[in-house]
Design goal:
By secondary structure, this protein is mostly helical. It folds into 2 domains: about 45 residues, no CATH class; about 80 residues, Cytochrome Bc1 Complex, Chain D, domain 2. It is about 65% helix and about 0% strand. The chain is elongated and about 70 Å long. The two termini are about 30 Å apart. The structure holds heme C. The site of heme C has 24 residues, from α4, α7 and α8.
Amino acid sequence: MLQSMPKELFRSSLPVVSFGSSHFRTAVLVLSAILVVSAPRLSWATDTPGAQDGAAAFKTKCVACHGPDGAGTAVGKSLKAPDLRSEAVQKQSDADLATFIANGKGNMPSFKSSTSDEQIRALVMHVRSLAPKKKAEN
Ligand code: HEC
């Protein structure tokens, strides 16, 4: 019963597709062109707001110690920077991480004089995005 459904749908949709006049085909072409052009932007729109800013700021301010993936560079490790993807870091609240980035801690420098609150929030989101993806989110 259920298995015969898709075949039925397929057959009934075939005439509609092949019926296409040149107008119809032009419309399909235009529509798919619009989709192709706007698809990357649409996917950004569903991304966390500020994620791009966070990634850019992370690259300029944080990568030297934490590395592009948050694992930590040789320099970072020598300063005892933790793996930002680790549970120990990720389990902390956004507010804690934001305070931490603003004020620094141990060998980690303070960023509040060079970084706006908004940018710090974006950095926190970026740190979150480094965490290994949970199965449920896929
Ligand atoms: C000069 C090297 C250096 C730079 C640059 C740096 N960090 Fe760190 N970071 C550290 C060190 C060292 C620690 C460990 C501090 C401690 O716990 O004593 C750390 C820890 C952290 C932690 C973990 C905090 C915790 O307690 O769980 C976060 C989050 C973090 N850094 C984010 C950032 C962000 C975001 C930037 C860029 C704005 C950045 N770091 C730039 C060295 C650095």
